[in-house]
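We give its fold:
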Amino acid sequence: MSETRIDFRKTKFLISAPDIAHLNEYLPGDTGVEIAFAGRSNAGKSSALNALTDQKSLARTSKTPGRTQLINVFELEENRRLVDLPGYGFAKVPLALKNKWQKALGEYLQERACLSGVVVLMDIRHPLKDLDLQMIEWAVLSEIPVLALLTKSDKLAQNVKMKTVNAVRKELAEYGDWVKVEPFSSTKGTGKPKVLGILNEWCNPSWLTEAEAEQASQEQAEQE
């Protein structure tokens, strides 16, 4: 069966929700495939989402880290979604608000059955902070593949960039094939084709493509 190629440029905003209860209320069930984008509040999540979808304002960017306070859901196509999770670890927000975001983040990651992959974004100049490592470890223990995306790679010289990438790969080697590590630049487009290839693979698990093929076959039979 040929793999479905997702046109990420057609990604559209679907819904914002403060927690998983509201997410379940407005989305058509915990079905299909979702890929979560998670990272510290200054890791460049919004910029990465905009760059990967070739849209300047799909995800809101801000000079003030920590603006993403909600779970923001974007639809790629039927049964396939991207989820921008609240940024974690930024100190300059009230403690009560930070705890609220952390609760929403934890509930989503623990309870969302259709979660098929997690992109953990880290500033390449400051990778593998404690919360990043916790996120990666949690995903692997839950048998969810991880893409450790080292953002803002244009900020480093090529030799320093590759040295950092290799050091992070070595640090995460214990997780085997569960974790991939790639450099990325939202402004230069570095790493974009490789990242889109990984996301496309995650969007097309065999169980989903087989179910879609069976449904299409049934619909065709009904029309004959």
